[in-house]
Amino acid sequence: MKIEYNNLYTHFIFTTQHRQPIIPEKNRIRIEKYITGIVNNNSSKLYAIYANPEHVHFLVSRAPDISDETLATIIAESSERYQ
Predict the structure, then answer these.
(1) Residues 3-28: pLDDT tens digits?
(2) Which residues fall within 8 angstroms of residue 42, CB to CB, at 6 or more apart?
(3) Domains defined along the chain, listed by start
(4) Residues 56, 52: Cα–Cα separation, whole Å
(5) Fewest CB within 10 angstroms: 46, 55, 58, 77, which?
(6) DSSP class of residue 2?
(7) pLDDT value, residue 62
(8) Distance CA 65, CA 83 (A)
(9) How far apart are CA 75 and CA 33, in angstroms?
């Protein structure tokens, strides 16, 4: 299957609840890989990601068949279940 990407990049910032610093440094890379997998499995391409203790930044381009809102919802809901 060929995936087409838009030339539109979206910079997402997800924060923890009440911006609590709950992302420990020892889990940062695991969280980044987890979100990378979610993005890649949803017709999108991840260009950069960094997890801070209270928020995560990532830059993606997506296929035309998925909206930014849909992609953000999928990532947020999947991330809530991360353990």
Answers:
(1) 665 567 899 999 999 999 999 999 99
(2) 62, 66, 71, 74
(3) 9-80 (3.30.70.1290)
(4) 6
(5) 77
(6) -
(7) 87
(8) 30
(9) 12
3-state SS, residue 83: coil
In angstroms and rounded to an integer, the radius of gyration of the C-alpha atoms of the chain is 13
C-alpha angle with apex 82: 75 to 71, nearest 5 degrees? 5
Q: What is the DSSP string of 30-79?
A: HHHHHHHHHHHTTTEEEEEEEE-SSEEEEEEEE-TTS-HHHHHHHHHHHH
Here the tokens at position 18 are 């009440």
Q: Quick one: which of 51, 43, 6 has its CA closest to 25?
A: 51
Q: What angle do CA 44, 68, 17 make, to 5 degrees?
A: 105
pLDDT of residue 64: 82
